[in-house]
Amino acid sequence: xxxxxxxxxxxxxxxxxxxxxxxxxxxxxxxxxxxxxxxxxxxxxxxxxxxxxxxxxxxxxxxxxxxxxxxxxxxx
Length: 76
Fold this sequence. Notes:
Strand content: over 45%
Strand order of the largest sheet: 1-2-3-5-4
Number of helices: 1
Shape: globular
Order of helices and strands: EEEHEE
Largest sheet: 5 strands, mixed, barrel
Radius of gyration: 11 Å
Helix content: under 10%
């Protein structure tokens, strides 16, 4: 896996929908609560043409300042 930022929160989620401009709606479960996060693909994933489809399990990094947006860093 790539380098993880010190202040980023990494969580597991499932891609619910593919949106335009390489954006995705990801369902994340934290503390028993389901949240939807708007996420984009990290640069390395774009560079190596890693495809993401609805239903894929992914790792999302989120900033502690805005928990509604994130960056997809890994696909399982």
